[in-house]
Amino acid sequence: MAENVLVPQAIPLAPDEYNVVSDHIGELAFINDDGDDLPNFFRRVDSQEIVYQPRRRKAKLVGKYLFGDVLGEGSYGKVKEALDTETLQRRAVKIVKKRTLRKIPNGELNVQREIQLLKRLRHKHVIKLVDFIYNEEKQKKYMVMEYCVGELQELLESTPEKKFPIFQAHCYFSQLIDGLEYLHSHGVVHKDIKPGNLLLSREEILKITDLGVAEAIDWFDSGDECHTSQGSPAFQPPEIANGQEMFTGFKVDVWSSGVTLYNMATALYPFEGDNIYKLFENIGKGKYTIPDSVDDKLRSLLEGMLQYKAEDRLTIQQIKHHDWVRRKHPTTPGKVKFKSLGDDGDTLRSLSIIPYLEDLHCSDQSDEEYDDEQIFSEPHYNNSSKNNKAVVSEPSTDVKQKKKKHKGGLLSSCKQS
Amino acid sequence: MPLFGKSPKTPHELVKSVKESLNALVKCTAGEKKTDKASEDFHKNLGALKFYLCGGEDDKEPHSEQVVALSQELNKTGLVISLIQNLSRIDFEGKKDVVCIFNNLLRRHIGTRTPNVEYIVTKQDVLFDLIKGYENPDIALICGQMLRECCRYEALAKIMLYSPEFYRFFDYVEVSTFDIASDAFSTFKELLTKHKALSAAFLESNYERVFGSYQRLLNSDNYVTRRQALKLLGELLLDRHNFMTMTRYISSPDNLKLMMNMLREKSRNIQFEAFHVFKVFVANPNKPKPILDILLRNKEKLVDFLTKFHTERSDDEQFNDEKAYLIKQIKELKSADEAS
C-alpha cells in the first residue's frame, strides 16, 4: 500500500506550489462532459514516480495566445495572463465558461452585450477587446484584452489606510472622467463604476472595464432614460435605491464616480448598511457626511456629484471644469504602488509567461512525466473529429502536439497553421 | 545647471541673452559672415533656456521658483512670441527646443490657474501665426506640435475654432505634401473633438459655414483627404454631444445623395466609411419627407445593393447586424400617405 497511492492524496504540496494540480481542479467539470475520461482520472501512480519539483508550468495555447499565470478571478471566471505568440504582445484573457454563466442571472446576455459594446469602443481609458475566441467544444469564451497590472480596488486594499494620497486619487479620477465622457459620447451608460472595475496599465493609465451591465442608448434618443440597473449596491444613486422605474443614465455614472472618489480619498463609503435593504434605505434617504479631513474644493466636488436629485447633480462637463479637477495637486509621499502577487517580491509584476514558453519550446521531460501530463491535461479533443466545429482549431496544446511542434523548430512552432 | 564653469545666469539674464542674440540673428541677412556667429550664439542661448525650463534628459523637475521667475520674464518680454515669429530662421534642433519651451510653459499650473495659457489668450495672434505656419513647409510640423498642445486647453481651442483662421484648415488638410496634410488633419480633428461641449456648440452655431466647407473635403480629389474626412464625419455625427448637428445633417437630402454616391465609390474603404454615415439616415425614426422619398424611390435597388455590399466581412458581426437592420428598415419603408 505504501507503494501505490492515489494521486490526489499523493501530493501534499500547497495548491500554488504545484500549479498543474491546482489548475486542474478548476477543470474537473469536464468529467460530466465525457464519461469516458472518468476512470482515467483516479490512476494509480507509483510513489517513486512522484517527485517533488519546483512548480512546472504546462504550456497551453489557445489560438495564437500562450497562457501564463492566473491574474485574477471574478464571478464570471478566471483572468489569465497571455502572450500573443505572433506579435509578442502581453495580453489578459478573460475566460468565461458557459456553465458558470448559466448560474448567473443574465450571465450570457451580459457577456454578449459586453463584447458587442467593447468591439465598437476605442479609447485610451476604456479597456480594449483585442480578440475574441469562442470554443464551442469546451463551451468557453476567451476575451483577449489589453494587459493591465491590476484593479484600483486591489491597490486600495493593499494599503493599511485603504485610501490614496490626494494627488493619486486625483490622477485616477480625472482619467475616469475622461473615459466616462467618451463612453457617454457614444451613448453608453456604464452603470457599474467602482474601484473594482477600474484597471491600471503598466504606464498607470486607467482603463474602465466590465461593461457587463452597461447599456447603449439609441442614437436617436435625445434623452438618456434607463430602466434597469444591476450595478454594485453601495455605488447606486438614490433613484435606483428607491426603485424608480426610470432614471437618467448618465447621472448614475456621475453618482457612482462620486462614490468612487469619496472612497479613494477617505477609505469610507458615503452610505453603508448591514444588508442591501438597510443600505438602499440609507441611500434612499440621501443623508451622508464628508469627513472633516476633506478640503473645501474636494468637498464641493463630492457634494456636487452626490446630489440627491439627478438633475441637480454635476454633469461630466461641470466636473471637468471643477476647480479640484483642474488643480494640479502636489505630489506627496506615500504613493500607493502594486504589491507583488506571490511572495517573490516582484512588485513590477513581470511577465509570467517565460516558464510556459520554456515548456512549450524546450520541454525535455521524460516519458513518465508525459504520462502525468496526460492525466492532468484536458480531455483529448485534438484526437476527435468533432473538434472541427470549434472556431479555434486547437483548444489546448497537449503533449502530442507539443512534441510535434518541438520538432518543427522554435520559430515554426510560434505559428498556428 | 552646468556642472562647472561660470555661475548660472539668472532668469532675467538668460531671457535677455536669448532675446538679444535673436535680434542679432534677425538683423543679419543670409550669406553674411557674421550670420554664422549670430546663429551659433543664439542657438547656444536657446539651448540653455530650454535646459533651464524643461530640465535635462533625466526627467528631473527643474527648480520651481526659478522656473516661475523665468516664465514671468518670458511673458514680460514677449520672447516666446518673437521666437515663433522667427521660427523659420531657427535651425532644426532649435525648432525642437522652441516646441519644448512653448509646450512646457503652457502646461505650468499655479493652483487651478494656467498662467501661460491665460497669457496666450491675451496674445491671440500667436495662435494664428502658428496656424499659418502650415503654409511654410519648413515649420509646418513644428507649428503643428505646438498647435496640438494649444488644443488641449479649452480657452485656446475656443479662440481657434471661432476665428476665421480655422477655415484655413480646410485648405491645409488638402495640400499635396502628405505629412503636412495629415498633421494639419490631426490638429483639425483635435479641435473638433477634444472639448466635446465646446465643439458641439461651435458646430451648431456655425453649421452652414463648417459643413459647407466640409463638403469640399468629401469631394476632394485627394483620396486620403476624402477618406479621413468621411471617417471624421461619421465620428462627429455619432457623438451624442453633437446630437443637434446630427439631426440637422441627416435631414438634408443632398447629404443623403452624397453618401449614396460614396457607397458606390471605387475604393472599398470609402464605401465602408460611407456606410457608417448612410446608416444614420436610414436608422432615423423621424425621417423628413425628402429623405424618405429618396429612400423609397431607391428602395429595391438599395435592398439589392446592400445585400451584396461587402459580403466578405463575414467575421464583422456588428457590421453584419447593422447591414441586416438597414435592409429590414428599407424593406419596411412606407411613404407618408401609405402610412396614414
Automatic annotation (TrEMBL), chain A:
Region (Disordered): 368-417
One Pfam family it belongs to: Pkinase
Subcellular localization: Cytoplasm; Nucleus
Keyword Nucleotide-binding applies: yes
Domain Protein kinase: from-to ranges: 65-325
Domain of life: Eukaryota
Gene3D superfamilies documented for this protein: Phosphorylase Kinase, domain 1 (3.30.200.20), Transferase(Phosphotransferase) domain 1 (1.10.510.10)
Protein name, as recorded: Serine/threonine-protein kinase STK11
From TrEMBL, chain B:
A single GO molecular function term of this UniProt record: protein serine/threonine kinase activator activity
Any one Gene Ontology BP term: intracellular signal transduction
SUPFAM superfamilies: ARM repeat
Signal peptide per UniProt: none
Pfam family, any one: Mo25
Family: Belongs to the Mo25 family.
PANTHER family: CALCIUM-BINDING PROTEIN 39-RELATED, PROTEIN MO25
Name of the protein described by the UniProt record: Uncharacterized protein
